[in-house]
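If you are new to this repository, start here. Below is one unmodified record pulled from the training split, so you can see the exact layout before writing a loader.
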Amino acid sequence: MSEKKPYLVRLPDYIAEEITRRSKALSSNPTEYATNVIKWWFGEGSPPISAEEKRLLEITKGTKEKKARSTPTT
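And here is the target side for that same chain:
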């Protein structure tokens, strides 16, 4: 089993309250629920969450592809 990395996030009250409400409905806790949301996002292929992130990922991808094409193979 791989090692797990802890993350600390700060959320606005209205988001924390919704996570708490939904976790209670599932007899879970807020940390487990938030973890499952992130696992779901990852399972969906980690899509960008904003137009800015999408734009930056496309730039980064293009840069990596250019480097790969220009690297000589032996």
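Two things worth knowing about this chain: The CA atoms of residues 68 and 74 lie 13 Å apart. The chain has a mean pLDDT of 89.
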